[in-house]
Design brief:
Heat Shock Protein 90, alpha+beta, transmembrane, phosphoprotein, 2 domains, histidine kinase, EC 2.7.13.3, single chain, two-stranded antiparallel sheet, kinase, Helix Hairpins, five-stranded mixed β-sheet
Length: 290
Amino acid sequence: MVLCLLCTAVVIILLCAKIYLLKKSAREISEQFADRLKNDTNNPVYVSSSDKDIQQLAESINTQLAELRRQHLSYINGNNELKSSVTNISHDLRTPLTAIRGYLDISKKTDDPQKLHRYMDIISERTEAMQKLSEELFCYSMIISRDEAPELEDIYINQILAESISSFYPVLTQNNITPVIDITDEKIIRRANKESMQRVFSNILNNAVKYSKGDLEIRLSDAGVITFSNIADEITAVQTEQLFERFYTVETARGSTGLGLHIARYLLREMGGSITASCENGRLTFTIMI
């Protein structure tokens, strides 16, 4: 009887000690968790208990805290990017609007046909810039807001690239750009979306029109690697890394919205492809793999 009582007392003492340690660990977790939420820190939650379940609980909380910090950082970056984008769009809209209004006011004060014709040309140019910006914004919003990924099929890359170059040829020659074209005779078939690839090539060619100084090399290798290359000695290595960012434009760009290359990268990623930019010895090269 006495032995039973002693055993019972020992068990009770051990249980009490266990409960005390668990409560201590719970207080530690509670205090540290509140501290991690309040302060911007990467320190994990530590517990003094060696209990396996308590350790797993702390590990689970640390995992959730890390995810929460990642989402918070993503939110901050996205919010900053949104503010920057709104500022850029406002500037791109305000600049041509200010010019249009100014030249309209000047036009009211003159009857000179030559001056009026010149003013109307400038107004038309600014209007086209605004139209282009609105079309790019609409296209971008349609692409990122669609619920389903584009339908993929086996497409003939050689033909699509050649057709894209052909459609841009008048614009290229008008800007004194004579492209050097090297498209392999090897039939390059890739699983992609035809309209998306046409848009990608169009955006890159349009970029070449803005930045090229008269040269443009377009190549499609036997391995299916596509490169667009032109002299762009005013673009720095830092600018090259930023070319695919939304609304980013190089200062020398004429009528650029800063969305073309971003859209090209977005579409290629949707299809499992990639696009990179490099600048060596004053030559800018875009490399596409699909």
